[in-house]
Each structure stands twice: as structure tokens, then as C-alpha cells.
Amino acid sequence: MMNVKRNNAWLLLLLLLGSVSCIPQKELLYLQNKESVVDYPDADVITGKYILQPNDYLFIQVSTFDPKISEFFNSTRAGNTSQSTQSNMFMYMIDDHMDIDFPYAGKINLQGCNLPCAKQKIKEALKPFLKDANLIVRMGSNAYTILGEVKNPGQHKMSKDQITIFEALGTAGDLTPFGKRKDVKIVRPQPDGGYQTIIVDITDNEIVGSDKYYIYPNDFIYVRPIRAKQLGIGESFSLGVFSSLLALTLTIVTLTR
């Protein structure tokens, strides 16, 4: 009878070890082919969908057939400044009224504009001064913030105007084994001052090319921990948990003698 109780105690220990000592591989794999219960709308181009907001920076460069005129408009703000300052001379901040202050053209309001709209408004404002001008207008402050179960949390610059969720996670060093891949939360500021919360399942192959596949400037990404971390489990089984389970089993064995 004692042997049966002792065997039952060791069986209990093995069951506990098996239930919490590893993270299922299915929870770690990206882009799985599975039956998705989510309908993912197709994505729009980010440069066409992102609405500019106060405190955004725009990179604006004027190009004409006359190099001297181009240099004049592009260097007006910098003057004879140092080389380190000249690197920012194409940057224009959008103020709280959604205006940029452009040389000679003055205040240009970009309320409700995406990048193509902003480019057109700036070009219209420059017509009295430049008949034929080519403009380069792109985001100058495109960054996102990521926190939670990633290896390199913090604010990261976007390498281009449009990046994917996987590029964003890759820049942050990828998720830790504890990152909840089925529940990545994106908090996105809205032009009206509100916020939109988006939940992304990066284990689902169907997100590729969808509206949830891309990161916008100023996005906040949070990767929640899975329950295994709350149990004290590491990438290998936690010594603390093992010790606790072993002590529990020895107690049971002692009591059943």
C-alpha cells in the first residue's frame, strides 16, 4: 500500500513537470497555416492612409532646373550653419495648428493631410515663387515605441515610410520566448486625438498584406507575457519551481509512510 502511495506521489510530480516545464512549439511559430477566424481587410499604402499629426516632422526638399534657386530655397533655413545642423535643414515640424512655416510661402496648413495631400498643398503655396519645381516630401520623424516581451524595448526609428509588424519586431530584437504571439497589441494615435487599439496574431499567416500587417509612425506596440512566465519558468525549467515541486512531493511521500 505504501509503495502505491509513493508511486502516486512521484507520478504527480512528473505530471506537474510535464504540464509547466516547456512552452509548446505551436505557441512560438510565426505565420502558421491555420483556419483563421479573423477577416483581415487588405492594406492601403501607408503613405496614403497615415494622416499627419501635430509634432510630426516632414522632410521637404525643393528641386528646380536652376541649381542656384534650388540651393536658395533649401538653404534658407540653415544659412551658414555647421555641417551637423545642415543635416536637419530640410526638416519642418507641424505645429499644434497643423501648420508648417515654409520660407517665403509662410504658414501652410496641413490639416487632414496625408503625404500626397501635403506635397500638393506645399507645391501650390510655392507657385507664386517657383513655376516649375519638384518636391520631395516624406516623413522625417517616423518612429514607433515597443515594450513588453521583446529583447530590445524602447523607441525605434522606422528605416522607411512603410514597415511591417515583423520588421518592427526584428528591429526590437524579436520576441522573447515568453511573448504572447497571438495577442500583440498596437495602440495607434488618431487625428482627432483619440486612440485605436489593434490586436495582431503574428502566428496567423493570413495577416500578411492585410491592414494589420503594417506599422504606422507613432504606433505603440505592447507584447504581453504568456502565463508560463507567471509560473517562474525560464527558457529552461526554473530551478525555483523544480525545488518547490520536489519539496511538495517529498512532503507527500513522508505523510503517506
UniProtKB/TrEMBL annotation:
<dbReference type="InterPro" id="IPR049712">
    <property type="entry name" value="Poly_export"/>
</dbReference>
<keyword id="KW-0732">Signal</keyword>
<keyword id="KW-0472">Membrane</keyword>
<dbReference type="GO" id="GO:0015159">
    <property type="term" value="F:polysaccharide transmembrane transporter activity"/>
</dbReference>
<dbReference type="Pfam" id="PF02563">
    <property type="entry name" value="Poly_export"/>
</dbReference>
<feature type="transmembrane region" description="Helical">
    <location>
        <begin position="237"/>
        <end position="256"/>
    </location>
</feature>
<keyword id="KW-0812">Transmembrane</keyword>
<keyword id="KW-1133">Transmembrane helix</keyword>
<protein>
    <submittedName>
        <fullName>Polysaccharide export outer membrane protein</fullName>
    </submittedName>
</protein>
<dbReference type="InterPro" id="IPR003715">
    <property type="entry name" value="Poly_export_N"/>
</dbReference>
<feature type="domain" description="Polysaccharide export protein N-terminal">
    <location>
        <begin position="48"/>
        <end position="139"/>
    </location>
</feature>
